[in-house]
Design a protein that fits this description.
Blueprint lengths: L18 H20 L11 H4 L2 H24 L8 E2 L8 H11 L12 H17 L8 E5 L2 H25 L9 H4 L4 H13 L3 H7 L1 H4 L8 E5 L5 H8 L7 E4 L9 H13 L4 E7 L11 H13 L5 E6 L19 H7 L11 H9 L5 E4 L12 E5 L26 H4 L7 H13 L7 H21 L3 E3 L2 E7 L7 E8 L5 H14 L13 E8 H4 L4 H6 L4 H7 L1 E8 L8 H23 L2
Parallel strand pairs: 1-12, 3-4, 3-5, 5-6, 6-7
Antiparallel strand pairs: 2-8, 7-8, 9-10, 10-11, 11-13, 12-13
Length: about 625
Amino acid sequence: MTEPINFNALFLGPKAENYDFFKQMLVYLMDDHAEWRRFFHPEDPLVVTEDEKARPDFARTLQNTREALIELAGNLQVSSNPWFSPRYLGHMNADTLVAANLGYMLTLLYNPNNCAYEGSPATTALEIETGRQLAALMGYDPRTAWGHITSGGTVANYEGVWLARNLASVPLAIRDCMPELVEGLDDWRLMNLPVKDVLDLVDKARERGRFDEVRDRSVRGTGMAGRDLGVLLVPESKHYSWAKAADIFGIGRENLVPVPVRDDYRMDVRALEDIIDSLAAKKRPVLAVVAVVGSTEEGAVDDVHEVVRLRERYAEKGVSFYLHVDAAYGGYARALFLDEENRFMEYDEIKKTHADVGHGGWLVPEVYEAFRAMSCADSITVDPHKLGYIPYSAGAIVAADRRVVDLISYFAAYVFEKGDDNPMLLGSYILEGSKPGAAVAAVWMAHRVVPLNANGYGRIIESSIEGAFRFHRSILESDPLTVAGRRFEALPLTRPDLNIVVYAFHEIGNGSLEEMNRLNQAIYEQCSYKSGPLYISDFITSKTSLTEEEYGDAPLSFVKHFGIEEKEWRSCGSVYVLRSCILTPYLVNNTTYEIYWGNFMQSMERAIRRLYEA
């Protein structure tokens, strides 16, 4: 058994406590790179000579660079968010791993382009390796799965739709080219073949030398005109990229159907079932169902296991669909459940391993089962630049069966040597073209230093969840604030599934939702970039609005908790809330937390005072 990591050694630190080590490594990587340049054909003459360096215009050019860098540094310090500080309780950002930063900086000097192997011999191999690592993290067999690094979760979600769309059109293309393979199957049956069955048909087409013909008859070759590949079902808590994907891939916004969420902001699986039943009655296929693990606004974890069971029941009725899990935010949290042998631990083991998180109240059976069931999805989005603590930009997608990638692959003669099945030709299998190998190196370095299990990433993420639960509990237990003779309370939206806490302040006895929204907007404006230079802010948070248009009546119970009547909700149709993504692992020490929480409430009180005593 390896020793657990010490996460205090993994980050530069809120006060740059590990600066000496970081600086040593920076000097090392610069020296190492300089030596690489010097010893590449050392017989070549110097281009930049000492005489050249002595010229006035040479010195002036260096000075221009120095001045530009100083100006940039000043702009960054004044206007950048202090992700590293426990006082930053805003978006999905935190301090980044020293290993990832150093890997990015070192590789940046080599400037590899992970579009093609010849442009990135080192980092293309690393991307294949990290793809397999992420596949294993999601519970896939890395020998047969496929994964790669993208610029973020948006592109990864696009690729998920791309895979599902092209796959759905293959059975009809098979019928056009080789009807004997699908003899006796009508359109409805063909549109509801399970993913494995479709890929087996593709294998048969390949064996007969007619794969390219089939692919040309699929939507990839003939386009979406006149095709109805079905609807894309997404929870109301969806990321905005899904609406974009429906547009870009010709599915159409009207075929992007929202599934209601419950008041815990998890997808309502019963509502999902009702929608699928209604579609099946009309002989409308379901292109794909998307479940979310870590919604961007609430951090909610959908009941993936229930969706999987639902799909199994529908398969018995001849109804099938592609399942994608959008775990851009929560994907790395699966490390909490894996032991050093990459085994998904039993529930009682997990409860024991993470017994202190939320006083033992964090892990509920539904969250455990949801993470376990992720391995049953056809593809998954996961972002290293979120809970992987890796610098931008680094998203990823993994697919359970790498055969599906053949349905989207392309070759460009000037970039690739055409081969039948070469995963090193990344640009042929992905949505993007030129892409930085430095981001891949950052992910690889992070995984090299921090294992993808409970003793590695699990330690960091466990600490962030514990911080979120302390924050949530403190909101519940806090006494009302008294300002200008008025009393103000705070309530959380829901119990955190991960480490996002959504909450709102309200004047006790005030029944106006519009006034409550104005109060929370005023607090946000005093605790964000809108209040001026960020370094003068005591705490920085983020916000969102939960609207009737996006969420239906899911927020109504939250509004009622403040004593606000339903008619106010009907009138406003939106509740303005504060949102704190607590990625920082530093809110776990009791003394430290108590100091920060006390300062936080004082900051909230000052913001309220500015509104009512102005």
